[in-house]
Specification:
Length: about 230
C-alpha cells in the first residue's frame, strides 16, 4: 500500500531529515512511527502527503509513484489518505455534522449520499447525539472523534495520524486508540506518528523507529524502545 525506496530528504538549510529510507507497508497494517524530536517523523508524513518532495528516491502509494504525479493530481492523491492531527483542525464555525459533511461536499458527493453517510459515520465514532454541536462545545476526545470521522468519511485506504493523542489524557487516548484499531480492523492501513510510549507498548503492533533520519528499528510487534 505504501512503499518508500531509497528515500532521502535534505532541506534547503542543508539538514538531512531522512537518509536512504526503505519501508514497505502492506494493506491493513497498523504502523507506529516513533523517534525523538527531530528524528524525521514529520518529514516522512509530509512526504506521504506530498506536502514536500524527496531529494532522492521513490514513494509509491496504492501502486502509484507519487513522486511522478503532476501537481494537478495531488487532490486525488489526498483522497486516498485520511489525515488526523494532534490539534484536531476542525472548522470552528461548522457543527459536528457539517464538519464531516464538508469533507464529502468537496469530493462532489451528492446531497443524498451525504445525508446517508454522515449519520452512519457519526454513529461509528459514537457522536450521533452531538451532531448539532460546535467544536468548542466538545471535549478534546470528542473533537478528535470528529476529526477521525472526517478523515475516513470518503473511505480512504490509508489513514495517517500525526500524534493523535498528543493533547488527550490517558483514558481518552485509549478510547481514541480503540477507535483507530476498529477502523484498522475494517481494512484501513494506519500509520501513526507518536510519543505515546504506553500506547505503543500495549498495542504490540509494527513499530518503525527513526533516529537522525535513519531507520534504527522495524519490528513486526514492537515496543516504544527508548526513553524520551
Ligand atoms: P520529527 O517530526 O521526528 O520531530 P522532523 O521531520 O520535524 O522530525 O525534523 C527532522 C529534521 O529536519 C530536524 O533536524 C528538523 O530540524 C529538520 N527540519 C524539519 N523541517 C524543516 C524545514 N522545513 N526546513 C529545514 N529543516 C527542517
Ligand atoms: P487487540 O484486539 O489487538 O488487543 P484492542 O484495540 O482491543 O486490540 O487493544 C489493543 C491493546 O490496547 C490491547 O493490548 C489492550 O489490552 C490495550 N488496551 C485497550 N484499552 C486499554 C485501556 N483503557 N488501558 C490500557 N490498555 C488498553
Amino acid at each position: 500500500m505504501i512503499v518508500l525506496k531509497n528515500v532521502s530528504k535534505r532541506y534547503k538549510s542543508g539538514t538531512m531529515a531522512l537518509s536512504n529510507i526503505n519501508i514497505t507497508i502492506e494493506k491493513g497494517e497498523f504502523v507506529f512511527l516513533v523517534g525523538a524530536s527531530g528524528a524525521g517523523k514529520s518529514t516522512l508524513v509530509k512526504l506521504l502527503l506530498k506536502e514536500t518532495e524527496p531529494t532522492q528516491g521513490r514513494i509509491i502509494i496504492d501502486n502509484q509513484n507519487i513522486t511522478k504525479i503532476h501537481r494537478r493530481m495531488v487532490p486525488y492523491l489526498r483522497r486516498k489518505i485520511g489525515v488526523v492531527f494532534q490539534d484536531f483542525r476542525l472548522l470552528p464555525n461548522k457543527t459536528v455534522y457539517e464538519n464531516v459533511a464538508f469533507a464529502m461536499e468537496i469530493t462532489e458527493a451528492t446531497p443524498k449520499e451525504i445525508r446517508r453517510n454522515v449519520p452512519t459515520m457519526l454513529g461509528l465514532v459514537g457522536l450521533s447525539s452531538k451532531a448539532k454541536m460546535y467544536p468548542e462545545q466538545l471535549s478534546g476526545g470528542e473533537q478528535q472523534r470528529v476529526s477521525i470521522a472526517r478523515s475516513i468519511i470518503n473511505n480512504p485506504p490509508i489513514l495517517i495520524a500525526d500524534e493523535p493523542t498528543g493533547n488527550l489524557d490517558p483514558e481518552t487516548s485509549w478510547e481514541i486508540m480503540r477507535l483507530l484499531r476498529q477502523i484498522n480492523r475494517r481494512g484501513t492501513t494506519i500509520v501513526m506518528a507518536t510519543h505515546a510510549k504506553e500506547i505503543v507498548n500495549m498495542m504490540q503492533q509494527r513499530v518503525i523507529a527513526l533516529d537522525k533520519g535513519e531507520i534504527i528499528r522495524d519490528e513486526k510487534r514492537g515496543g516504544y524502545g527508548y526513553e524520551d
